[in-house]
TrEMBL record, chains A, B:
PROSITE patterns noted in UniProt: HTH_CROC1 (PS50943), HTH_LACI_2 (PS50932)
Name of protein: Substrate-binding domain-containing protein
Residues in HTH cro/C1-type domain copies: 2-30
UniProt KW Transcription keyword: yes
HTH lacI-type domain ranges (all copies): 5-62
CDD domains on file: HTH_LacI, PBP1_EndR-like
Keywords: DNA-binding, Transcription, Transcription regulation
UniProt GO molecular function: DNA-binding transcription factor activity; transcription cis-regulatory region binding
Length: 344, 344
DNA sequence: TTATTTTATTAAACCGATTTAGTTATCCAG
DNA sequence: CTGGATAACTAAATCGGTTTAATAAAATAA
């Protein structure tokens, strides 16, 4: 019921003008010749009554909302929610809040999200972009709004971006399996045009071919009922009994793929080699536990926020940077005695 | 570079007043006697140029930001991020955006978050409250701000809340284990004063005692390094060889507890009964797969948002509601042949 | 002593919407 | 033909800040 006090109230209580209070509040006191005595007076009163300026009013006048818009495919995905947490941690220290939106990897949803975020006057965007959103992002940039892309590249667009080396990650994953004696590695990936998926595929292909093998790729349609995904993978394994290792291109696929493997009730179940792109806390609990290509989440977040802050504080033109980070291979309790592994 | 257009621009282009445009925009045209012709004219122009009002200005004038503040212990936790996603889904359809903050279950952090949210003029709060925050929340409510509590009760405070029946959930979990022939069930829980944890403990205790057993409770300190948690649980199992089943009070504990069980390398490893409070997609992948008490996430979200919308649209006083939802037991591939289970 | 600069403070415009209180013009009744 | 009601629209106040331009008082220079 006690209504919030405004800068006008403060000014009246102290018998000074709003201007003076505002100057003090914004650290522009000294440069505007407000006396030290006055500064102390205002500051201590502010402190005492716990006054905090209304962001709406500030935002209206300055055009800055102190809010960052974050758009990812799905905030409930562990990868993205972990990142969201880190962003929050870092951006809070800079006085920013985050509003989020899930794109569902859908262009129209994303377009609408961008529109809503614009109306909310967010100061900057952090986006894991869906395909086909180039034009809209270009428009943002041309309007001078800071945009940082991550997780998925946006080819043909010169924009700040932070990505991981999907190609190398997949290559290393495959290499690891080969080095452990596996001969028939299938890659299970998404039936999707996402660039990062194509890169992972390329890494796998390249590695297998260099070793003189023949790539085997199983593509699963996303967002279908997971039972379907499981059945598809199961089918494949049953039809290709020589398969002795699986490289899952995403966590989501591994989740279902592991069930498929279990369902097969094949002897291979505990001998099969498994590597997954993206790590999970649960992987270490399987036996044999699962090796993963993990993304450097911490680094991604600091790079993204650094780029963002740079843009937000930007005085002069700066050229967009494209940062590519290496992945980490987490080798767990490696698979199985190498010699016994193959079933050739 | 093309600067966004304002209602003033629209008005000038159309040779009408801002007032008229505003009335049309807010659906208050007819009740204010704006002619149909004029309404169409404005509407079609708005549509054509894609004008959208500035939320900052609207917010300043109306005091409504169309933003909801969500505070949970940790947004990267699967339970909370899943909920965050659902909230987003529902609230988006009502024209709201969400800003979030992680409380770390810390009172001071939460106090500051509330302060920040207030400055941002959020229209409503959805909070999974840490202990000791009663006063601050009471203050919010007294100021007439909608607050919905979930996940954790705030005893002694009359506020809208949505909780699950932790007591019954834990009771059922324990009962399930007993019914399957397990005799020595240990409950692994957090060393924490959180009410919902105490309820779970109470459910377990009650059930064991009713069956004439002696409760065994192992409390783990949270936020410690997980290696410590694993070691503690491992230690317990080694010191209490009669233990034939474990009831984990949280997902987090199960994650580490399962590793502890594996580390024990005891014969019991594949015979031990395991039930976890909170479900996880990964549980079905273990063998024997893990039974879980799952929270009705969908229902929690609809109840919370319903209460919230009710408050937001509230005309007259309404008494706070406390909603308690039942948990679901997800029995998976049940444990093990009952007879062989015990090791007595 | 007067003119000029510097120091300390403030009045008023502005941001972009909503909303209150009018203002015309038209219509109808008496 | 006049006065009151109604219909259609609008001027101006307002929300709570920031910022520009101005002012009064004190200090320095001429």
């Amino acid at each position: 019921m006690k209504k919030k006090l405004s800068i006008k109230d403060i000014a009246e209580q102290l018998n000074v003008s709003k201007t003076t209070v505002s100057f003090v509040l914004n650290g522009k006191a000294s440069e505007n010749g407000v006396s030290q005595a006055m500064q102390r007076k205002v500051l201590s009163y502010i402190e005492k009554v716990g006054y905090r300026p209304n962001k709406m009013a500030q935002g209206l006048r300055t055009g800055k909302s102190k809010t960052i818009g974050m758009m990812v495919e799905d905030i409930s995905d562990t990868f993205f929610s972990t990142i969201a947490r880190k962003f929050e941690e870092i951006l809070t220290t800079k006085g920013y809040k985050i509003i989020y939106g899930s794109t569902e990897n859908n262009t129209d949803v994303t377009k609408e999200l961008i529109r809503v975020f614009r109306n909310h006057q967010v100061d900057g965007y952090i986006i894991a972009p869906p395909p086909g959103i180039e034009e809209d992002i270009k428009a943002l940039i041309e309007d001078g709004v800071p945009v940082i892309i991550f997780d998925r590249p946006l080819t043909e667009l010169d924009v700040d971006s932070v990505l991981v080396d999907n190609y190398r990650g997949a290559y290393k994953a495959t290499q690891h399996l080969l080095a452990n004696g596996y001969k028939n590695i299938v890659m299970v990936t998404l039936l999707s045009e996402q660039t990062q998926m194509r890169e992972r595929e390329r890494g796998y292909r390249q590695c297998v071919e260099e070793a003189g093998g023949k790539p085997a790729i199983l593509k699963i349609r996303y967002h279908e009922k997971k039972e379907k995904a499981i059945a598809d993978i199961e089918q494949y394994l049953k039809n290709n009994r020589k398969t002795d290792a699986v490289f899952f291109a995403t966590n989501y696929l591994a989740e279902n793929g592991l069930e498929a493997i279990a369902n097969c009730k094949l002897a291979i179940a505990d001998r099969i080699g498994v590597v997954v792109f993206d790590d999970s806390n649960w992987f270490r609990l399987f036996k044999p536990s699962i090796t993963a290509i993990s993304q450097p989440i911490e680094a991604i977040c600091t790079e993204v926020t650094n780029l963002l802050m740079e843009r937000l504080e930007q005085k002069k033109e700066i050229a967009p940077k494209a940062i590519v980070l290496p992945t980490n291979m987490i080798i767990r309790n490696s698979s199985v005695p190498v010699k016994k592994a193959g079933r050739t």
